[in-house]
Design brief:
By secondary structure, the protein is of the alpha+beta class. The chain has eleven helices and 21 strands. The strands form three sheets. Strands 3, 4, 5, 6, 12, 13, 14, 15, 16, 17, 18 and 19 form a twelve-stranded mixed beta sheet that branches. Strands 7-2-1-11-21-20 form a six-stranded mixed beta sheet, sandwiched between helices.
Length: about 375
């Protein structure tokens, strides 16, 4: 085993180098080795350190941007048999997802959304009235009027999932080098040369899956893609009696709410603190946390006095239009897959497959037009 590890440590060439060991980088690595390509993953910290390992773990199609839905649907189908892909169920629990309406305006907006979805050929979302809502969610407040509802959406454990993708990719031959920040990137003789404190690496293809640091890496290879780093926050509460089997959100307000089998409740929804990506740290916004907690308390009076045990935030990259960047860069052999704007966890199994298809010079079976890296260019 020691000899094998030493040999792996000396490995510095591959068919593709993935920059970033979050869930999208790990998924890309796995799909590439499934296609018999050699892969090196360079991660500046450790796999799952940032957004991929500390998010809410939602596996949802509900509420997605229309252009993102085909990708979300393809990923959802893969989630139904995750052990076949990564030899681990990733703690995935299928249930249902609800976005609760607390006034008539929100309920009418939900009906309009479903009508537009149906017009586009999507039938997974429906509007339910207060009576069905009360049956599915007895603990919700009496003022809740109904909800957007999807049967079959659920949640998984994000750090476990990211590690499962990593392990499976490693078993199939991918090489991961953690604590390996990229210092410099150059291109010579049809190869990309990546300089790091841990040695130099080279490959004809570079995949930028660097998350909140994706914009900075894009600049290293000549692509100017706007990205801001934010810190989506989460809190967990003390253990409470079981009262919420579905995953719950809110129409008109930020909320992601789930109760675990041990009774603890995880509350988030995209409200952000301050991110300092150059320092690998975040600062919580207590007022923002209080807003999302008040939304949760309004929907679930049962938690009005529940004790908050812990609060934290990840570091995530957000694009101006809140859609990911997936596609080829301007230089040969560059692919981007970052900017998932706090809703990329569920998409990862399908994103890895799309990236692998692009590396193989295939046309993916899903449209990437809305995710094009050059969509922010002033010349477009």
């Amino acid at each position: 085993m020691r000899v094998l590890r030493k040999m792996m440590a000396l490995r510095n060439t591959a068919d593709a180098i993935v920059i970033g060991g979050g869930i999208h980088g790990c998924s890309a690595a796995l799909h590439l080795v499934l296609r018999k390509l050699s892969v090196i993953v360079l991660e500046k910290d450790y796999v799952g350190c940032h957004a991929s390992g500390v998010n809410a773990g939602g596996v949802r199609r509900l509420g997605r941007d229309f252009t993102e839905l085909p990708l979300a649907q393809a990923a959802w189908e893969m989630w139904q048999d995750m052990p076949a892909l990564v030899d681990d169920d990733c703690g995935y629990r299928q249930s249902r997802y609800l976005k609760v309406a607390r006034n008539d305006v929100q309920l009418e907006a939900a009906r309009a959304r479903v009508a537009e979805l149906n017009r586009r050929g999507f039938t997974h979302e429906e509007v339910i009235d207060r009576h069905i809502l009360r049956r599915l969610l007895p603990a919700c407040g009496s003022h809740c009027l109904g909800a957007l509802h999807v049967e079959g959406d659920g949640a998984a454990l994000p750090f476990r999932t990211t590690q499962a993708f990593k392990r499976r990719a490693e078993v199939l031959g991918a090489y991961f080098s953690e604590q390996t920040p990229v210092n410099r990137v150059t291109r010579r003789k049809s190869l990309w040369h990546v300089t790091t404190p841990c040695g130099n690496f080279e490959a004809p293809v570079l995949i930028n899956a660097a998350g909140a640091w994706g914009g900075n890496f894009a600049k290293k290879v000549g692509d100017d893609i706007p990205l801001e780093a934010h810190a989506p926050m989460l809190v967990s509460t003390q253990s409470l009696p079981a009262f919420a089997e579905p995953i719950v959100g809110a129409l008109g307000a930020a909320l992601s709410f789930k109760q675990f089998p041990n009774g603890t409740v995880l509350i988030g929804g995209g409200v952000c603190g301050e991110a300092f990506p150059s320092e690998n740290r975040t600062r919580l916004d207590i007022a923002g946390l209080e807003r999302v907690l008040n939304t949760a308390r309004d929907i679930f009076p049962i938690i009005s006095k529940a004790q908050v045990n812990r609060a934290w935030a990840g570091i995530e990259g957000y694009t101006p239009d809140q859609l990911p960047v997936i596609g080829r860069g301007g230089a040969p052999g560059i692919l981007h897959a970052f900017g998932f704007s706090a809703h990329g966890f569920q998409l990862a199994p399908a994103v890895g497959g799309v990236v692998a298809a692009l590396v193989m010079d295939e046309t993916p079976n899903l449209s990437l037009h809305s995710f094009s890296p050059d969509r922010f260019s002033s010349s477009k």
